[in-house]
Design a protein that fits this description.
Elements (H helix, E strand, L loop, with lengths): L2 E4 L4 E4 L3 E2 L14 H13 L4 E3 L8 H13 L4 E6 L1 E3 L4 E3 L3 H15 L4 E6 L8 H13 L3 E7 L15 H11 L6 E5 L11 H7 L3 E5 L31 H6 L1 H12 L7 H10 L5 E4 L5 H8 L8 H8 L10
Parallel strand pairs: 3-4, 4-5, 5-8, 8-9, 9-10, 10-11, 11-12
Antiparallel strand pairs: 1-2, 6-7
Helix pairs in contact: 1-2, 1-10, 2-3, 3-4, 8-9
Length: 332
């Protein structure tokens, strides 16, 4: 697989990453299979998909444990990214950015991942009760201690309550400007897909101008852009899509033109090319430091996703994808 570098530290990863969250968190629990998920991670590494993206809150903790069982055998082949800053309660999630907690959480992640160093340690969410500089300073000390190689930040969009004329990622950019004064940011992770393009307006250009890598989260629109979901098919109650407005039967039907457009582009490249591969190839075309991180728990999908790195979209293809209608239905 093509290799890409992210951040000033020139961290090298496969062009397409693997989001491990669906294996343990947020999607239908009845379809989660530990053995199958481990085979999926092994398959990803076989294909050169080296970036494994997890977090301590996924499960919580069980996702890191699962990834750790693979790393025990294949650590040298993997680029490990995990996150800190969120605690999961019975019915809520809260941020914790206290320096002492961050250091303890890192040690716990290292144990679960069965490794002595985390390649990319990301701040999942800034704690509103703790200056972000204090949290980032503690994370920088972990780099100096040799427990972490590089630092990243997960961006949070803010559609609701924005000031007129303000961008969705203005708050994130201000946080990035603050933490950059403490220690370099190597990567920013934010939602970016054919149906969620807001990061193109300011956040991605901000990263590109500073040589910061961009990890495109949810690049397949939580499965919608694969064309495998049926409007009205329904989701189990523990699946995050059961509560999102874009996944009502009405909105899924209304957004089918996006999938139709991706299928049309795929057909020009051969019968085996899929809408998902076109969606990933579009993200890869945005720049050499952009890495899509599609999530999956099945080896067949990780195989399909990995093949997207070899798909070269033409100028006509890119123009057609750019002209697809915006998604309907608020994501908030």
């Amino acid at each position: 697989m093509e290799r890409r570098t992210i951040g000033a530290a020139t961290l090298e990863v496969g062009a397409v990453g693997l989001g491990c969250m669906p294996m343990s968190w947020a999607y239908t629990r009845s379809r989660q299979r530990g053995d199958e998920s481990m085979r999926t991670v092994h398959r990803a590494l076989d294909l050169g998909t080296t970036l494994l993206d997890t977090a301590d809150m996924y499960g919580p903790f069980t996702n890191e444990l699962l990834v750790g069982r693979v790393l025990r055998e294949r650590r040298a082949e993997a680029f490990v990214s995990t996150k800190v800053g969120l605690l999961v309660g019975e019915q809520h999630i809260v941020a914790n950015g206290r320096p002492g907690y961050v250091k303890r959480a890192c040690d716990a992640s290292l144990r679960r991942l069965q490794t002595d160093v985390i390649d990319l340690y990301q701040l999942h969410r800034a704690d509103p009760e703790v200056p972000v500089e204090e949290t980032w300073g503690a994370m920088a000390e972990l780099v100096q201690a040799g427990k972490v190689r590089a630092l990243g930040l997960c961006a949070v969009g803010a559609r609701a309550g924005r000031r007129p004329g303000a961008g969705m990622y203005d708050t994130t950019i201000r946080q990035l400007q603050r933490v950059q004064q403490i220690f370099p940011v190597s990567a920013v992770q934010a939602e970016l897909s054919v149906w969620s393009r807001e990061a193109l307006d300011s956040l991605l250009p901000w990263c590109v101008a500073r040589g910061i890598g961009f990890l495109a989260a949810m690049p397949l629109g939580n499965g919608f852009l694969t064309g495998t979901l049926t409007p009205g098919g329904g989701f189990e109650i523990d699946d995050l899509r059961a509560r999102h407005p874009r996944f009502t039967a009405e909105m899924m039907a209304a957004n089918q033109p996006l999938v139709v457009g991706l299928r049309r582009v795929a057909a020009r490249h051969g019968a085996t090319v899929t809408p998902a591969q076109v969606a990933l190839a579009w993200i890869l075309s945005l720049g050499p430091h952009v890495v899509p991180v599609p999530g999956t728990k099945q080896a067949r999908w990780v195989t399909e996703n990995a093949a997207a790195h070899a798909l070269r979209l033409t100028a006509e293809d890119l123009s057609e994808v750019a002209g697809l209608p915006p998604a309907r239905g608020s994501w908030d």
